[in-house]
Structures are given as structure tokens and as C-alpha cells.
Amino acid sequence: MPTPTTAPVPMSATLAADEILARRQRAGQRVLPMASGEIGLPVLPELADRLARAVHRTAYGPVTGSPGLRAAAAGYWTRRGLPTDPDRVVAGPGSKALLFALFLAIGGDVVVPVPGWVSYGAQTRLAGGEPLPVPVAPGRGGVPDPDLLREAVRRARALGRDPRAVVVTVPDNPTGTVAPAGTVRRLAEAARELDLTVVSDEIYHDLVHDPAAPPDSPARYAPERTVVTTGLTKNLAVGGWRTGVARLSDGEPGRALHAALAAVASQIWSSPPAPVQEAAAYALAEPPEVLARVGASRRLHGTVARAVAARLTAAGALLAPVTATCYLYPDLTPLRDRLAAHGTTGGTALAHRLLDEHGIGVLPAEAFGEPGDPLRLRLATSRLYGATAEEQQAALDAPDPLRLPWIRTAVDHVGSAFDGLAALP
Amino acid sequence: MPTPTTAPVPMSATLAADEILARRQRAGQRVLPMASGEIGLPVLPELADRLARAVHRTAYGPVTGSPGLRAAAAGYWTRRGLPTDPDRVVAGPGSKALLFALFLAIGGDVVVPVPGWVSYGAQTRLAGGEPLPVPVAPGRGGVPDPDLLREAVRRARALGRDPRAVVVTVPDNPTGTVAPAGTVRRLAEAARELDLTVVSDEIYHDLVHDPAAPPDSPARYAPERTVVTTGLTKNLAVGGWRTGVARLSDGEPGRALHAALAAVASQIWSSPPAPVQEAAAYALAEPPEVLARVGASRRLHGTVARAVAARLTAAGALLAPVTATCYLYPDLTPLRDRLAAHGTTGGTALAHRLLDEHGIGVLPAEAFGEPGDPLRLRLATSRLYGATAEEQQAALDAPDPLRLPWIRTAVDHVGSAFDGLAALP
Q1: Chain B residues touching A38 at Cβ < 8 A
Q2: Of the candidates A286, A314, A336, which is a domain's last residue?
């Protein structure tokens, strides 16, 4: 028999949790899936129709995506204050795949925010580098603290390591917060000082709850070195379609990175799925019905996330104000003694407890790179909107989604579970 | 300005050539695209219809693909003499992406056939290993010579390198030949002796021109260590849809590799495009209309490839009998002196000459890893079937496609170009 293979990275924590929850559901158990950020909303009919009309697109087309998709993406960013040349756009089969290909193209080690999305570190390792974790200051989710970044990079270089990029997530997964402009600017300045490429994961850009307070981008402060990525997964709830776009910087460094990224893409995925490219071009052109849908989902995320946040806070959790996305990142330290008295001493045990006792799937802070298994969790509210497309559409349409019985029940279910933790003797 | 990035690998030679040819075409130049193996045939209407009906599939679903797709793939292989457990199938966004993820999951260096497909070596490098090129014996396309394999692996290990896998391509790209069963068996035995995983790229399995002579698979001889990959790209001409499947071996090593591959997939692509999975499940179940279409395209490939091969041979090229796929790999050494007298001393210069003087896009042997820029080329006949879906359908339906004027013209165009080379003073 051949030597068994050892996995070079662990399974994605979000996807692994989803599969466990799906198995429990198939076994007839009651499950509240709050572990992954998959958006439980139906596809916009006009968007589905675009895909249905593109099924005859069977050619690979250009490695970096069709001219139509790249032009639409350029328009999307230009409307957000980042003028974009379509020739500096690279489309791929998901922004996840693009991030990985960027790490391969850039090479070296990658600074990742802590807490940060589960795949940045694993992708860095698969690309042959080492993740360099740098903490995020409270309320400034997704942006490594600029001073700590300087220290960490200098120390790493002194030890012979080769950090070449820093990842930021604005707005942030897992904390649901948006780094303020000052932090983003200082991060961009530090990256310039340190000659790091900034990889800015902006997939949640349009899901800031207050549309009058759009998030800032490091591409405004360090345009010569910032790559921005996004996709349709979060805005339009079509994660399963697998499509994303990257915006590379102008000038020679951007050109060189574009060439490297296209080369990597040509060797590992050829081109993004052709029919989906047509649908993505339609979506990124943002016709009124798309803007209306993104607006409706933004309101729904905000309403439900804040309602769940209020219940967590009422139960004694510490929680930064949730201003974007569908993620809550409560700190249960105030309940530490009660939990410890019942054998629950860290976030991992707490996540198990919520699943076993309440059927609630969540992820512990450890999944987001936090050391020492702290008593923090990430809860995603994006699958509380209904079990059917009809319920989900009603949630999008409702003036007050919290009055819909299935949403009220779900919010109460979470709230009661945490009340129960707070009431432990 | 940041330090410019150096691409870690070159652009895929086939995709780069396609983009050059597309640019020439847009500039109004006459082009005969024979550089890439993209299949210029329309999508089967029933298959397109399946995709159109699946556009509401927006959830990620399982990392390794839907149960329906995995069961259909298991049936596909079981019908070909390789009984398959659906739980040992992994679907991905293209067999190209699966091959790369396998190299990441297996780790170490990878033995690649020479000549061999353009991406095996680049993918090995991106996965952190080094390709170990081993020559293929004439007429045994895609299978590294078993004795040379033993020598190369032992030498590499003595030098501290770590070869863990060997890739085979049966039937073969670029040579259009099918390794005989004896060679496949001896390769499998050598892999067992050397404790190598065999990665068997069988995307051309159903395109052997004589359906009574199906290709053999190393999975029959070394079932405990062979991974088989395939997809819809070649059989059903839907390369742009991006879908592929891998069949892992039974037993503990197969289980461990399955876990590693799923972990890698979860971190770099999440899941294959969900709507395409539905269409792929339909195709791999092989209803009569799918079998009829694959049969028709097999006959068309065979007829046109052999007609072009006859013209090349008539012009003096050496060519192993073409028995599968749409690839020809002629050796122009008999014309060496004539070509040299006109400044054309290698395959690369010859490819340039064919493009500049005749508008024919081909790839030199160097693109397939052959050292020393020999006077060999790969020509793909898969885009000679017509400029429109109507012409292509007529080619599929024609009792004798060579009588269709556009195909006759294309074959004559290639033939005349090579006659011209043979007639050089």
C-alpha cells in the first residue's frame, strides 16, 4: 500500500461546520446554521435569467475574463471612487480562488489580520509561504494594527522571512465591524513604508448597514500597491455560482502583478465559468433591480444582526457595535466563571455546547486565528431568513422582518440559548 | 513604487497562443486556430437545457460536489470497468483545477511525461515541487517509459529529491496516441515498486477513434494508488463551463488522499459551480443522446485528424498513427535541411513561420517539455469544424465531413502550407 497522504492544511472551518450541520439536519435534528456566512436568500430572478440565457457560452474565452465582465467590474469600482482600467481587472472562479492565486503570484509570506477569515492563512501555506498573524485593534476589524504590522514585519525580516503582502478585510469578517478611514490610511502608509502589496478583500463593501457611511479602501491611500477583490457571493447570494473579480493597481508594479496573476490563473483554472461571467457582467453593471436587491439584503442583514446582537448583549456578552455584514463576534468573558463551573473553558468547548444543547452551529475564535482558544465566537445571521425561497423573499420584502414568525423564532432561539448560559448557577 | 512581481510560472502556452490568435482574428487577419485543444462544437441542446434549469442552485453544497454528481461519476467509471464508490469521487471546477489540487494534496515532486501537457510541470512548481521529466517511448503517448521512470526516481531520491507521484495521460495529449495495455501495466508496476501515486489524466478516454479498442487505465493494475481524472471539456465541448471529477482509490491511502484533497479544495475553491454540477450529473449518467453526441464527435475528430495527418505525411512529416483525440504531433526532421536553408532551425521558429506565412496557429514541441527545440509541432484539429454553430452541427451530422466546403478548405490550407515547406528549394 502507498504511504498515506497527510493533508497540507485543515479543511475550511466554515465549510466543515456546514457539512456537520447538514448531516445533523438530514438525521432529523433541529439545527440553526450560524457557522458559515453563506447567504440564505433566493437568487434575483433577473440575474438567474441572465445565467439561463448564457448557457450556450461554452468557450474558455480570455484567461482574465470576458471584456464585458471586466468593463462592468471597472465601472463598479469607478462608481465607488476607484477609477479602474478594465485591463487591470482579473476575473476568477470566486474571490477565494483569486486571493489564493494572488498569494501564489506575489509569493513570500503574507501578513494576515487576527481575527481574520479562516482561509487566508491556509492559502498562504498552500502558496508556499507562512502567514504572519498581526492583531486587529478592537472595533477596527480586518485591518492589522499598523504599528504592530511594522514591528512584526521588521522582526520577521530580521529573522530571514520574506513578508511581501498584507491582507485586510473591509468591512470585516468575522467581526462585522468596519475599520475607520484613519486606520485604513495608516495601514496603507505602513504598507508603503514596508514595501508590502496590500490585498484588500472588499467582498462585504456594499453590506455596510448605513449606506451613507461607505467603507474606505487602502486603494485610495496606496493606489500603487493595492489589489482589491470582490464577487457576487455576499451581495447577491450566489456563492454556489463561483465568480469573483480583482482590481490590480495602475503603473508598472500593477502590470507585472497582472501578468503574474494571469499566468497563474492560466495554469490552474484556465478561465472563470463562461455562462456565469455573463451574469456577473450584468450584476456588476448595477441596473436598478440589482441595486434594489442589494439594498434590501443590506437592510435585512442589519435588522436581524442587530436584533441578535441585542440578545447577546442582554445575556452579558461583550460586542462591538455591528455596523456591517451578517456577522457577530461576541466575547463571553463576562460569563467565564459560570461557564468554567460547567466545564466550558474556551470558545471551542462553548461552540460544541451550543451545538449539542441547542442545535446552534457557530465557530470559535480559534477558527479565525485567535490564540489560546478565547471565549469568543462568530455567529452568522445570514441563514435565519427562512427555510424556503418564499420565506426568504418575504423577509426581504417585509417592512419589519423581525415580525415574521420564523425569524422571530430563530432570534429567540439564539437569545434563549445565551440567556441559558447567563443563568448557569 | 513596490518591487515588481516576477511570474512564478509562464502563461499556459495553449491559452497564450489562443489569445494571440484571437487578437489577429479581431484585426481582420485570416487565422486557422490549431494551437489549443478547445473543441469547436456547439453544446448538446439537452445539456444546455439542464444548465438553464439549474440556475436557481446558488448554495455552495458539499466541497467535493453534490451526491448526484458523485453518483453519476461513479457510474461512469463503473461502466468502464473501474467500480467506484461515490464517496471516493471529488468534483472540482475543471479537471485542470483538480490536477493542481492533487499535486498540492500529495506534495513533493511529480514525474511528468515528455512530451506532455503544458500545465503538469507548471502546476507542480506552483504546488511547491519540481517536475521530474521522463521521456515517453514512441507510440506510447502519455506514459513515461517504466524503465526510465525507475532510473529517474532512484536518481532523484539519491539526490535528496522527493518524487511522490507520476502523471500519465491516456489517451495522450499532445501525441494523439494511446499507450498499449502492456505499457500501462508496466508503468503501474513501476509506480508500485517506487511507492508513487499514479495520477491518470483520462479526459480523452472516450475519444479513441475505434470504440472497440478502449484505452487501458493504470487504475486496473495499481488500484490502491491510482487517481483518475476526467471532465466534460473534451467529450461534450463545454470547456468554458469548468467542471471535472477525480476518482480516488479505495482503502486507507485513498481515504487519506480524499481527505487531503477535500481540505485543499475547501481552502482554494469551496465547491464546483453548483448549476454546472447538475448538468455534469446529467452528462455523466450518459443518457442515449449524450452517448450519441460523444460518438458523433469521436467520428468527426477521427475523420478530420486522419485527413490532416495524411496531408502532413504526404508532405514528408513523420507521424505515429493517430488513434485518438484531435491532436497530431508531426516530426519535421525529414525537412530539416530545407527548413534550415531558410533560417528555420527548430520547432519554435517553424511555429512562427506557419503563423506568419499561413495564419496557422500551432505549438512547438518545446511547449510540451521537449528539450532542444526539436522540429516537432502539435496541431489540434478540433476547431476546423466550422465558424458557426450551424456549420459545426452539420459537421457532426455529415456522413463525410471532409466533403463540407469549410472543412475541405481548412484541411487543404494546412496541407498546402506543409506542401510549401516540403517544396522549399
Answers
A1: 59-60
A2: A286
Last residue of a domain, one of B251, B267, B285: B285
- A19 neighbourhood in chain B, CB within 8 Å: 62-63
Number of domains in chain A: 2
> Between A and B, how many CB-CB pairs are < 8 A?
263
Nearest of A419, A417, A328 to residue A381 by alpha carbon: A328
* CA A376/CA A150 separation, integer angstroms: 27
Of A4, A9, A195, nearest to B263 by CB-CB distance is A9
- pLDDT, tens digit, for every residue of A246-257? 999 988 999 999
How remote is the C-alpha of B171 from its chain's centroid? 8
pLDDT digits (tens, 9 = 90+) for B341-381: 999 999 999 999 999 999 999 999 999 999 999 999 999 99
Is A266 part of the contact surface with chain B (CB cutoff 8 Å)?
yes
Contact A38 B59 (CB under 8 A): yes
Q: What angle do CA A69, A73, A74 make, to 5 degrees?
A: 115
Distances, alpha carbon A204 to alpha carbons A238, A294, B258, in Å? 14, 11, 32
Q: Are residues A109 and A205 in the same domain?
A: yes
Which residue segment(s) compose the domain that A321 sits in? 13-42+289-422
If you ran DSSP here, which 8-state letter would residue A401 be given? G
ipTM, 2 decimals?
0.96
Distance CA B174, CA B296 (A): 22
Same domain, B314 and B266: no
Q: B269 and A197: CB-CB below 8 Å? A: no
